[in-house]
């Protein structure tokens, strides 16, 4: 198929997004009507797969997410690769960096029709024939989805955020991808999406991946200006410590080329580092600020790690079955044993108590 023919096909399919979505769902149910899981919730699917509409499907089949599908040891939040964009841009020089398409491990979600836009401005056009899509409304002020009532593509509103739910040809039914997207417009009748972050997985999480990444961008500038050195943050992650009363947000960072001279400088500059840590805490998002002001969380803790610590997490993940090609450094860690690996190699710890 030529590029022109492909673009014409995309253009025609997105003009009737809802109709193509109905056809896609009908095709999935027709091909998989013998699956026991579907028969549990749609007992008449064998005889009536072609007559089951989207409303009946959404009402009858429950939502499920990755934790319902399989348990993994590390419980690592994948996140986006946004934090590396500025570094890649620096090393690429005049070579343009372009955004890719929106693929998950489960299916193709959307494509980028304007590859000339830089990755931080990429917008994705949903493909109505790739899978059947639903959207769970997400409330950024509450840091959670709003109930379990989904809407289809016709029900999404520009400017609002949603968690993407898919039903695929490969046996995922009403599966929550864990991706939070913002609807920024429409391409014909197809939603135009902007990837925001990975979805929080627990109500106790007080800093979202998006909050953390935005705060760390500012923190690096503050750290350089305050310390008077060209310090570069190579990696970072966070977790919630429940051993403190009240609970405490902990952030771990690893610096580039943290040699003996820099290590000594850091140890001698605890007051300056405390100022930087205070600035970081001020940027951790509205949810954190509200709980901090209410006294529901303890002051922030920041740990600067010895070099190579995040490589240890990579090795541990691979040892536990994670493909090296799919591993991304975690931004939110929920497993205390993984936090323990980081805490074994702390160089400097700053707490705002």
TrEMBL record:
<dbReference type="GO" id="GO:0016881">
    <property type="term" value="F:acid-amino acid ligase activity"/>
</dbReference>
<dbReference type="Pfam" id="PF03321">
    <property type="entry name" value="GH3"/>
</dbReference>
<dbReference type="InterPro" id="IPR004993">
    <property type="entry name" value="GH3"/>
</dbReference>
<comment type="similarity">
    <text>Belongs to the IAA-amido conjugating enzyme family.</text>
</comment>
<dbReference type="Pfam" id="PF23572">
    <property type="entry name" value="GH3_C"/>
</dbReference>
<dbReference type="InterPro" id="IPR055377">
    <property type="entry name" value="GH3_M"/>
</dbReference>
<protein>
    <recommendedName>
        <fullName>Indole-3-acetic acid-amido synthetase GH3.6</fullName>
    </recommendedName>
</protein>
<dbReference type="GO" id="GO:0005737">
    <property type="term" value="C:cytoplasm"/>
</dbReference>
<dbReference type="InterPro" id="IPR055378">
    <property type="entry name" value="GH3_C"/>
</dbReference>
<keyword id="KW-0436">Ligase</keyword>
<dbReference type="Pfam" id="PF23571">
    <property type="entry name" value="GH3_M"/>
</dbReference>
<feature type="domain" description="GH3 C-terminal">
    <location>
        <begin position="211"/>
        <end position="336"/>
    </location>
</feature>
<feature type="domain" description="GH3 middle">
    <location>
        <begin position="124"/>
        <end position="198"/>
    </location>
</feature>
């Amino acid at each position: 198929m030529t590029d022109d023919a492909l673009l014409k096909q995309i253009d025609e399919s997105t003009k009737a997004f809802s109709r193509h979505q109905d056809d896609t769902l009908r095709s999935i149910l027709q091909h998989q009507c013998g699956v026991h899981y579907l028969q549990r919730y749609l007992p008449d699917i064998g005889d009536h797969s072609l007559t089951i509409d989207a409303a009946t499907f959404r009402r009858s089949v429950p939502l499920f997410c990755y934790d319902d599908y399989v348990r993994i040891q590390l419980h690592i939040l994948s996140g986006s690769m946004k934090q590396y964009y500025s570094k890649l841009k620096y090393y690429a020089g005049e070579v343009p960096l372009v955004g890719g398409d929106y693929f998950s491990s489960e299916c193709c979600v959307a494509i980028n029709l304007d590859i000339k836009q830089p990755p931080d401005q990429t917008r994705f056009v949903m493909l109505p024939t790739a899978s059947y899509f639903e959207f769970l409304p997400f409330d950024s002020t509450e840091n959670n989805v709003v109930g379990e009532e989904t809407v289809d593509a016709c029900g999404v509103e520009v400017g609002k955020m949603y968690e993407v739910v898919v039903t695929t040809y490969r046996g995922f039914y009403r599966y929550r991808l864990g991706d939070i997207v913002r609807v920024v417009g429409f391409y014909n009748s197809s939603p135009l999406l902007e990837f925001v972050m990975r979805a929080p997985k627990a109500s106790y999480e007080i800093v979202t991946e998006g909050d953390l990444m935005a705060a760390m961008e500012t923190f690096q500038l503050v750290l350089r200006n305050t310390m008077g050195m060209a310090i570069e943050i190579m990696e970072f992650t966070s977790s919630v410590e429940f051993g403190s009363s009240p609970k405490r947000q902990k952030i771990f960072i690893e610096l580039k080329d943290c040699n003996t001279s820099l290590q000594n400088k850091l140890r001698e500059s605890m007051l300056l580092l405390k100022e930087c840590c205070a600035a970081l805490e001020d940027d951790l998002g509205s949810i954190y600020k509200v709980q901090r002001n209410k006294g529901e969380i303890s002051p922030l803790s920041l740990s600067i790690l010895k070099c190579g610590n995040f490589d240890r997490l990579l090795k541990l993940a691979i040892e536990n079955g994670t493909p090296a090609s799919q591993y991304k450094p975690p931004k939110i860690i929920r497993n205390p044993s993984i936090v323990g690996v980081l805490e074994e190699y702390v160089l400097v710890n700053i707490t705002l108590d």
